[in-house]
Design a protein that fits this description.
The protein is of the alpha/beta class. It contains nine helices and seven strands, in the order H-H-H-E-H-E-H-H-E-E-H-E-H-H-E-E. The structure holds S-adenosylmethionine (SAM).
Length: 222
């Protein structure tokens, strides 16, 4: 991992784009996230079995690195969705060849109103994005709707709540985000109708603050 880019909390105008990348700074932050989120993706995806026939949707796809990764693992079509225009443009550029071959689509849209039929996907993934979902339980239920029976939702976050942590508090206020505990994630997934909820936690490093953090990934089944 390239730690050159960490401590971007010192640059709030740039960091605010984590919620919804926009303009030149949004473009710049996506480049940084593509690098800084690589370790989280590699660690967390060890827990997700993906077969070559799995149809995959990456929600809050940002720069599209995970869409690119899934295209190498699955032979099925891979979709990326993000409500940010810049993120969709960057994702589409990165996955241009697969889009031309009809193997990939990048769609601008919100998790709250997914533009897909019921039972469309085997796997939905959400890397570093659930913090910003506006109506968490209903949004999880919306993701469940587009999953096939037995399909899985995979969530990976670089942050768990830290009591009395001034920098985390600053980050939450700046980005107007929700940092969920393991118990809150599991409870919310159950409330949204998911079962077989399994979580994994790892002590690591937060790429926003450069400080010790707990990473979490959660897998839940429809
Ligand atoms: C911190 S970035 C993470 C991007 C990428 N998943 C990664 O790991 O690098 C969060 C992304 O989620 C997207 N996002 C946030 N809320 C969303 C929503 N309600 N619907 C769709 N996308 C959303 C943002 O636009 C942004 O691209």
């Amino acid at each position: 991992m390239n730690y050159e880019n960490i401590n971007i909390i010192e640059d709030p105008e740039l960091l605010i784009n984590a919620r919804k990348p926009e303009g030149k700074l949004g473009d710049e932050l996506i480049e940084k996230m593509n690098i800084n989120h690589e370790c989280l993706a590699r660690w967390s995806l060890k827990y997700l079995d993906i077969s070559r026939s799995d149809a995959i949707l990456d929600i809050g796809c940002g720069g599209g690195v995970n869409v690119d990764r899934f295209l190498k693992i699955s032979d099925s079509k891979v979709y990326g969705l993000d409500y940010s225009k810049v993120a969709c443009e960057k994702s589409a550029l990165l996955n241009e060849d697969a889009i031309c071959e009809g193997r990939c689509e990048i769609i601008q849209g919100s998790v709250s109103d997914l533009p897909f039929d019921d039972d469309s996907f085997d796997i939905a993934t959400a890397f570093e994005t659930v913090y910003f979902w506006p109506d968490f339980i209903n949004d999880l239920a919306e993701v469940r709707r587009v999953l096939r029976d037995g399909g899985r939702l995979f969530i990976a976050n670089e942050a768990l709540p830290k009591q009395d942590d001034a920098r985390q508090k600053e980050l939450i206020e700046l980005l107007d985000m929700n940092i969920y505990s393991k118990e809150q994630l599991e409870q919310s997934l159950h409330e949204a109708g998911f079962g077989n909820v399994v979580s994994y936690v790892k002590q690591s490093r937060d790429s926003f603050t450069g400080e010790d953090a707990n990473w979490i990934c959660v897998i839940a089944q429809k």
